[in-house]
Amino acid sequence: MIPTHGNYTGYYKKRAALRLDRFPHFVLSNKIVLDVGANDGHVTTAIAQSFGPRAITGVDIDNSLVDAAWRHRLAVWSQASPDGVPSYFPTSLAHELGPLPVPPADAAGHDKHVFPHNLAFHCADWTKDNIPEDEAGYDTVLALSVTKWIHLNQGDAGLVAFFRKIHRVLHDGGHLILEPQAWESYAKAKRMSEDLKANYQILELMPSDFPGALRDIGFDFDQCLGETGEGGFRRPVDLYVKRTSISTK
Ligand SMILES: C[S@@+](CC[C@H](N)C(=O)[O-])C[C@H]1O[C@@H](n2cnc3c(N)ncnc32)[C@H](O)[C@@H]1O
Q1: Does residue 185 lie within any of the structural domains?
Q2: Keywords, A to Z (predicted)?
Q3: Does pTM surpass 0.85?
């Protein structure tokens, strides 16, 4: 299958950097978090395990990636020590003996807000469909390396609608961590299909316009959290905050 949504298999074999050092703890720790375009869940799982969110949900349009994300959650859980130290047991152990079952979240000594219970995945085209967690909303939304794919598939209007939906599901003062791909990278991606090529021809909104579009929707730019990645993967990670009605900016 051609990955016209950026739904690459083995993405984290090519892109080793999970960018965790870019994410400030205060937007994740003890927060309700959504990761849109979670792929096979490596970033989402690492956040669930190491940043202590109350709950984090990864959503992806590709069902096979969501299945892989659940498997990754189990593998990471199986490798942790009984008191939660990551990568304590070698991967070979789970290969030989099978993964450790996840006990129910209400079992003695377990807390539903602690890894692995604080982590779930759903399959959805999140631009069009809601997931159950959307109803209560989020403190933080991550949209990492997903804007290009939504933009190429759904055009300027679709991308703006995506930004609006993020604004809608965020609580006042909530944060958006956005990692947009550069315009230069669109040219190669559009070759995947005739539809993407046709959409590419009529795009007017450039990634350099995203800060203005987000401002119009009701976000304030907070700070650039830095750039990560090598070569074509080199991208900025930006932090936005949902303006509250009493904001003076
Ligand atoms: C290039 S990968 C980025 C993965 C991850 N966010 C990261 O940066 O490490 C983009 C992911 O977004 C997903 N995606 C694209 N459009 C989507 C949509 N409308 N709803 C949910 N997921 C989507 C793709 O399936 C793919 O797994």
Answers
A1: yes
A2: Methyltransferase, S-adenosyl-L-methionine, Transferase
A3: yes
From 59, 60, 130, give the residue whose CB has the most ligand 1 atoms within 8 Å, as the site to mutate: 60
Q: Residue 59 C-alpha to ligand 1 middle, in angstroms?
A: 8
Of 62-71, 95-104, 146-155, the range with the lowest mean pLDDT is 95-104
pLDDT recorded at residue 126:
98
State the Cα–Cα distance between residues 56 and 201, nearest whole angstrom.
36
**pLDDT value for 183:** 96
User: In 3-state terms, what secondary structure has residue 164?
Assistant: helix
Predicted local distance difference test score (pLDDT) of residue 101: 79
Q: Is the pLDDT of residue 180 over 70?
A: yes
Read off the CATH number of the domain in which 153 is found.
3.40.50.150
- Averaged confidence pLDDT in the chain: 93
Best of 1, 7, 144 for a ligand 1 pocket test (most atoms within 8 Å of beta carbon): 7
Segments forming the whole domain that contains residue 231? 13-62+124-242
Partner residues linked to 35 by β-bridges? 58, 142
Average pLDDT over residues 63-69: 98
pLDDT score, position 95: 80
79 Cα–ligand 1 center, Å: 26
Neighbour count for residue 131 (Cβ, 10 Å): 16
